Amino acid sequence: MAGAIASRMSFSSLKRKQPKTFTVRIITMDAEMEFNCEVKWKGKDLFDLVCRTLGLRETWFFGLQYTIKDTVAWLKMDKKVLDHDVPTEEPVTFHFLAKFYPENAEEELVQEITQHLFFLQYGDYDPTVHQRGFLAQEELLPKRVINLYQMTPEMWEERITAWYAEHRGRARDEAEMEYLKIAQDLEMYGVNYFAIRNKKGTELLLGVDALGLHIYDPENRLTPKISFPWNEIRNISYSDKEFTIKPLDKKIDVFKFNSSKLRVNKLILQLCIGNHDLFMRRRKADSLEVQQMKAQAREEKARKQMERQRLAREKQMREEAERTRDELERRLLQLKEEATMANEALMRSEETADLLAEKAQITEEEAKLLAQKAAEAEQEMQRIKATAIRTEEEKRLMEQKVLEAEMLALKMAEESERRAKEADQLKQDLQEARESERRAKQKLLEITSKSSYTQPMNSGMTALPADLPSFNLISESLSFDFKDTDMKRLSMEIEKEKVEYMEKSKHLQEQLNELKTEIEALKLKERETALDILHNENADRGNSKHNTIKKLTLQSTKSRVAFFEEL
């Protein structure tokens, strides 16, 4: 009894020690995950768990977002998860999203990006797999874009497939980077907009991004009216709805603005602090962690480069082996056809020789018979002459018979001579036929010898010849040690790859411009939105996001502050 009580007490004690948990659902762009989160966990504990699960090390670009009362908010790292104003029902849902954006993706991003790209979904283009209609069920473009052009879904699919095929063989990391390079040049890339008022009460938009603070007209989110880079800003704070911006130059007065919604002030401040910290961090030497990540990235890139080279060599050897096999099969088929033709020619030669021999024999017999008849006719003529009657009538008749006999003898002699010549010609034809037969046999013997050398004639199969050098595509011959010479060669190849990548990138931009020009004629101008029109105007003037901001910051900070307050 005492033992049972002790056992229950021990179990109760153990139960009390177990931490209380609640369920959290994390939604990424590709999947949903659920975790048991301890009630005492802070935002950083949950965020680190998600990053470890995803294998992500460049954590500073991301955050956990949630929505409360139609307002977007981000989980704070130093605050307990349940102390946030999150929904109470389980599972508590957060979206894992990019919170901050790099200024230059190509220079800043070290890890491979895990975006839900078309390339990653379908892999490299394969004409045997990606045939007409394979995109029929996909939402390829936003409906607004589709409605803007006079193009059917089939036309879009045709152009997208052609573009897809054009970039066959492009490496995954290259495809990801090209995607981000296009995205980062868009005017609204990485900008968070908030409705504000200056001290005059003018309705404006505040844009917060990786470069600084930008002030927009509410009707134009593409082109800022004035900009303040982060390196000009010393401090940002707010009280109630009022934000105070302190310029780096202490001689310049602070400037202020009011946000329209009190509950977004914390979000504005978070984004300002985070973007400012990253801006300053980019302009300092890399931390030890980033140096290690870059070193690992270089090693990983070298490994992938070597793997790509190995696969390329294997592919080349496989293609060469297939070409050799096809060539041998073609040659073997050709030899078989030649052998068949030689056999047929030989059979025809033998038949022709037999016929000519038979005809020559008949002609010879006919010539003998004609010679015999000619001799008999001569004898008859002599007999007729000896026994000729003396009467005139008999004499005349005799002369006529003699003349006929002479003509018959002459005709017989000519026919005999013609038959003799024909017999001689037939003998000559027979000799030529026999010579042709000899040559055909010789040709057949040569072909048979070649076929025997090229491939054993096993049941007439057209397999790869046994005496071909074997191509073991995954053999030790393809393996190699990572030595100094390999490193030097690899460095040269990586450098060459960089140049090729730049050329590809330039070519890609040219192709994009060609595609834009091609479909521009099919655009329905009447369906363009105000933002479309503004974007086109900026493009026509050659105004990009970066050169616009650069122009805006040419004036002094003081004059820009004054300009903002007078808007």
Class per helix and strand makeup: alpha+beta
Mean pLDDT: 78
Low-pLDDT residue intervals, each spanning 5 or more residues: 1-16, 453-482
Number of DSSP E strands: 12
Q: Name the strands of the widest sheet in spatial order.
A: 9-8-7-6-12-11-10
* Rg from Cα: 49 Å
Question: How many individual helices?
Answer: 14
Choose one word for the global shape: rod-shaped
What is the CA-CA span between the terminal residues? 85 Å
Largest sheet: 7 strands, antiparallel
The sequence of SSEs as H and E is: HEEHEEEHHHHHEEEEEEEHHHHHHH
DSSP helix fraction: 55-70%
In terms of DSSP E residues, the strand content is 5-15%
Question: Brief description of this entry?
Answer:
The protein is an alpha+beta fold and 567 residues long. It is 56% helix and 13% strand.
Features of the shown structure:
single chain; alpha+beta; 7-stranded antiparallel beta sheet; 5-stranded mixed beta sheet; 14 helices; rod-shaped
Descriptive notes:
The chain is 56% helix and 13% strand. Residues 1-16 and 453-482 have low confidence and may be disordered. The longest helix has 99 residues, at 288-386. It has 567 residues and is an alpha+beta fold. It contains 14 helices and twelve strands. The radius of gyration is 49 Å and the shape is rod-shaped. The protein has helices spanning 2-17, 43-54, 105-108, 118-122, 143-148, 153-166, 172-184, 265-282, 288-386, 392-454, 484-520, 530-541, 545-552, 557-565; strands spanning 21-27, 32-38, 62-68, 71-74, 92-98, 192-197, 203-208, 212-216, 226-229, 233-239, 242-247, 255-259. The strands form two sheets. Strands 9-8-7-6-12-11-10 form a seven-stranded antiparallel beta sheet, covered by helices on one side. Strands 2-1-5-3-4 form a five-stranded mixed beta sheet.
